[in-house]
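Meet today's protein:

…
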Amino acid sequence: MNEDIQHLKLLSIFHYVVGGLAALFSFFPVIYLVMGIVFICAPGSLESEGEAPPLVVGWIFIIIGAGLVVLGWAFAVCIILVGRYLARRVHYMFCMVIGAIECLFMPFGTALGIFTIVVLARASVKKMFK
C-alpha cells in the first residue's frame, strides 16, 4: 500500500513535468500562424518570380497553426490534470485514458503513459481511487 502511494506521487510529479514540456512544445506551430499572417498582410513581400500566393493559402496556414496550438495546449492541460487527479486519487478512467493517449508521444509520453497504465492496473491502486 505504501509503495502504491509513492508510485502515485512520483507519477503525479512526472505528469506535471511532461505537461509543462507539452505546453512548451505546443508553441512550435506558431511558426505556421505567423507565416499565414505574412501571406495575408504582405503578399507582395513573398513574391519572387511569379505571382503572390492566393490569400486562401494564408488562411489555411492560420487555421492549421492555430488549431495545432490549441490542440497542444488542451493536451498539456489534460496531462497536468492527470497529475493532479493522481495525487488526489480521483477520476480513475480519465487518468487511464490520458495515460494511453500519452503513449503516442515519444519519448517522454510513451514512458510515462506505460508506467501510468501499469500502476493504475493494479488492484490495490484501483481500491485507492474514490
